[in-house]
Amino acid sequence: LPLKHHILECYAMMASRGKSDVENALNRLVELANTDRDSVPVLFAMASAFTMLKQTPKARNQLKRVAKMQYNAEEADDFERSWLLLADIHIQGGKYDLAQDMCKKCLKYNKSCAKAWEGMGQIMEREQSYRDASDHYEMAW
């Protein structure tokens, strides 16, 4: 079966949000990662599973690997989702500069990414730069 098919099966398992289903999906994803260490879709799926299991540091580690990789258009969606999830983790952790870097990276390749604009707005709002926040939120619409 193609890699994408295996990944989709894992997402289907994770959709139940049951701890054992998510763990089983994660185990399968780890096996897939062992055969293709730099597969962005696999790394993002693993990060999603870790997030569901409330293991944020492990999710962050997978996402940091993606953030360091060379962008390629074939996996654009997975790159974008990885950067946005990492930005979200950084925002929750109060690391606004790192979150902003991820949002900007997203916008570099997709100027119309509403989630990235929204993330930038959240960052500005938390830094009490309300006019900038408003401008970023407006771009999200």
How would you sum up this structure, described in words?
With 141 residues, the chain is mainly α. It is 78% helix and 0% strand. The chain contains eight helices and no strands. The protein has helices at residues 3-14, 19-35, 40-52, 56-68, 76-92, 96-109, 114-126, 130-140. Helix 6 packs antiparallel against helix 7 (114-126).
Mean model confidence by pLDDT: 95
Give me the strand/helix succession: HHHHHHHH
- How many helix segments? 8
**How can the largest sheet be summarized?**
none
Poorly predicted ranges: none
What is the rounded Rg?
16 Å
Overall structural class, as computed from helix and strand content, comes to mainly alpha
What is the general shape?
Answer: globular
Strand content is under 5%
Termini, distance in Å? 40 Å
Helix content: over 70%
Number of DSSP E strands: 0
From the structure above, extract its key features.
141 residues; mainly alpha
Outline the fold blueprint.
Layout: H1 3-14, H2 19-35, H3 40-52, H4 56-68, H5 76-92, H6 96-109, H7 114-126, H8 130-140
Helix pairs in contact: 1-2, 1-3, 2-3, 3-4, 3-5, 4-5, 5-6, 5-7, 6-7, 7-8
Task: Please summarize what this structure is.
The protein is an all-alpha fold and 141 residues long. The chain has helices spanning 3-14, 19-35, 40-52, 56-68, 76-92, 96-109, 114-126, 130-140.
